[in-house]
Amino acid sequence: MSVAPGWYVDPADPQTRRYWDGEGWIGAPIPVDATPPEGPPPPEPEPVTPATTPTSAAPVSGPPPGLPPIADWQQGQAAGPGYGPPPGWAYPTWPGRPPEPRPHGLPLASFGARLAARLIDFAIVFALNALVNGWFFWRYLGELSPAVDEFWRRVQAQDRTTEPLPAAGEQAGSLVVVMLLIATSLWLAYEVPAMAANGQTFGKRVVGIKVLPVEADAPLGFGRALRRWNTLGLPTLLWYCCGLGLLLQLIDALSPLFDHPLRQALHDKRAQTVVVKVPRVPTDRANPPGDTP
After folding, report:
1. CB 41 within 8 A of CB 289
2. For the purposes of burial, counting CB atoms within 10 Å of the CB of 19, is it exposed (0-12), middle (13-18) or buried (19 or more)?
3. Which parts of the chain are beta strand (E)?
4. 8 Å CB contact between 195 and 228
5. What is the mean pLDDT of the chain?
6. Residue 71 DSSP label
7. Helix, strand, coil abundance in the chain, percent, nearest 5
8. What's the average model confidence in pLDDT over 19-35?
9. What is the pLDDT of residue 185?
10. Hey, which residues does 210 pair with through a beta bridge?
11. Pairwise CA distance, residues 30 & 182, whole Å
12. pTM of the model
């Protein structure tokens, strides 16, 4: 498992953060609620040993006292100042459940908040579809009317004939494809530009949540926003295939319930994003170093 370099909560001391350089922990720890600096910490000065000081004993190889064998988490990793599992790896001697992560000093958004935001956005996209797709839907109902009329005639007349209902019009299938293409395009146009600019759709702004890249507190950009939307939005085109697309979207929507510790949906994992709660007041975000009174 390869973990990108960055500041993470130290599994050995959840009250602090340390910098993971891809192979081990480096630098001095900082409080977990403090905003880490950009990039790695400055190198620590090497202690100066006086010439008259007797030569100290050779360092003991292997993990520090009290920690589990290093082979428990990564075979072949040499013990030393950066000893400890990488960020995201399970720590063998963790006392109870680890503390909930705070990406970029912000709390993770709850599933309820994410669902509420998605329902608001769905209502907006549905209204747009009602305006744009209304004429195509009316035409589609006209193509189905012979079969619908015959069905109700049989119900009212208690006709138990086994003859098949009249087939739908020749354009029924084409109209379904056109409506799905329009619905998918409207969803893309509504969500992707807004997410690329500030990580929030209208629904997310109302609920007070935001999408950020895992590695930095920065805008998503169009490419990442499009990758994130593709996983959830493109299956709309498969609704025509016996509802397969709707099933895929349902699985994606429920996936944050089963992901730990960052509660990422499948589309979050694809784009390497995380959904956080936006601070209502400045004190909701962890104070940067030096700003604590």
Report:
1. no
2. buried
3. 6-10, 13-20, 25-31, 209-213, 273-277
4. yes
5. 80
6. G
7. 45, 10, 45
8. 81
9. 96
10. 276
11. 51
12. 0.60
